[in-house]
Amino acid sequence: MTIDRRSSAAPVQKNVAMRAFACARAAACVMLMALALPALAQEAPDALVKRVSQEALQIIKTDPKVQAGDQARIRELIETKLTPHFDIDRMTALAAGRAYRSATPEQKKRLGEEFKTLLIRTYSSALNQYRDQTIEYKPLRMDPAATDTVVRTEVVRPGQAPVQIDYSMGKTPEGWKAYDVIVGGVSLVTNYRDEFTQQVQAGGVDGLIKSLAAKNAGGSGK
Amino acid sequence: MNNTRNVPMVSRVMTSLLCAALLAGCAAAPSRDDPFEPMNRASYAVHEVVDGHVVKPIAQAYVDYTPRLVRQGISNFFGNIDDMFSFVNDVLQNKPEKAGNDLGRVITNTGFGLFGLIDIASEAGIPKGNEDFGQTFGYWGIPQGPYLFIPLLGPTTVRDGSGWIIRAYTTPIGYIPDVPVRNILWGIGYLNERAQALQAESILDQAALDRYTFIRRAYLQRREYLVHDGAPPPPKDGDE
Question: Residue A190 and residue B119: Cβ atoms within 8 Å?
Fold first, then answer.
């Protein structure tokens, strides 16, 4: 019995070694994939802000239609390049506060769409204004396990005081997304919270959607 | 008496408005930022008409027809006066490093930059401060008080407006003996400020559902940020 065991021991060991090797290879492959995938989908928040803003600036500086002030082209660019990196639902929920929680799914959807359009239009007029800007990126200190962070940047314009622009970002299944932009200490979401509260008080969630739609249709604010 | 003569009409009007606001403020509920909203909205309506028809077109023409270099020089000149006040308020807020920077800026730009027309200090990498009396009050814990909208001067609070008044009475421009020169400088300074707001204003036009509300929140957020030197305490949850 003991001899039997010994005679079979060597092949078993070899087998185990080979299996272990195969396993290790498979594991390595899986790990590599696992590492590579988040590198694509879960780009670090500061790297994401830098890449997206540099791409946007590059286009602003080189695209002839944008240079000529073609609003449709500018909006298209924002829609394809920038808005995928914003968590519009979260922004809407934050800005609308309590009213959002009690809104119907249909209302939430329409509110999100109108708010998105307003943000795109606002952003395009901001881009129009600040063409000759350069952006400096502050080093990001973040716990690797964090799901929420602030990416700090500074917009430098020739002959003027720099403007701090911070992006509050949260981790989502589709990578990091911004849910607030803070320009010189002014949070977009906080600002809209007052506006939205006022509209909801006057005409409910539908009233808010209606005034957003009217604003987007070209009417100017009071 | 001498001092009052040196201060433009608007500042004197503001002083009386602020006194009225302070008196009325005692009766108002302290929980809200804007207890005088009806009065402020009326002021804002007046401001929109006068600014929209007179001041804004002039500011726009100034930007369109004045060479950039000239405007930059003018902006630097008044920026140098801002730096003097930054220095004073750095000292009042016990911030020696910033005080050193701002004093260094004033000396460099006044001495070597043609009385501030050229901002040599920025080229040399001395960072520009941004402190004023309103921030100093905030630093020492004085609350902002009721929000105010003053026609032609824009958004402020009782605290920040008090800071403006101190500045209006102490700025070197007020001590220029030649009355026409002094008045021209007041005018150019005002135009410079207004012109610098044009860009932000066009974004505001696009962004705001109600401009009055939007300006108010943006102003109060900005001041809170400045008082805390860029690190304001987390805001209280607004929807509770």
Answer: no
The token pair that represents B23 in the structure block: 């008196």
Which of B210, B224, B239 minimises the CB distance to A97? B239
Convert B200-233 to b/e letters by CB count within 10 Å (16 or more is b): bbebbebbbbbbbbbbbbbbbbbbbbbbeeeebe
Q: Are strands A175-183 and A163-172 parallel, antiparallel or unpaired?
A: antiparallel
pTM (predicted TM-score): 0.80
Compute the distance between CA of residue B221 and CA of residue A184 in angstroms, rounded to an integer. Answer: 9
Buried b (16+ CB within 10 A) or exposed e, B97-117: ebbebbbebbebbbeebeebb
- Residue A129 DSSP label: H
Minimum Cα–Cα distance from A165: chain B residue: B230
Q: Residue B91: CB partners within 8 Å, gap ≥ 6?
A: B99
* Chain-centre distance for alpha carbon B173: 16
Residue A168 CB-density burial (10 A; 0-12 exposed, 13-18 middle, 19+ buried):
buried
User: Of A161, A184, A195, which is closest to B222 when you measure between CB atoms?
Assistant: A184
CA atoms of A117 and A100, how far apart (whole Å): 18
Does the ipTM exceed 0.85? Answer: no
- Alpha carbons A216 and A119: distance in angstroms, whole number: 10
Give residue-wise pLDDT tens across range A151-187.
999 888 766 677 888 999 999 988 899 999 998 899 9
**H or E element, residue B35:** none
Distance from C-alpha of B147 to C-alpha of B160, rounded to nearest angstrom: 9
**Segment B122-164, tens digit of pLDDT:** 888 888 889 999 999 999 999 999 999 999 999 999 999 999 9
Residue environment code for A36-57, b if the CB has 16+ CB neighbours within 10 A, otherwise e: eeeeeeebbbbebbbebbeebb
Say which residues have a Cβ less than 8 Å from residue B85's Cβ, sequence separation at least 6.
B131, B132, B133, B167, B171
Can you tell me the distance from the alpha carbon of A57 to that of A135, in angstroms, rounded to the nearest whole number? 9
Beta carbons of A125 and A74 less than 8 angstroms apart: no
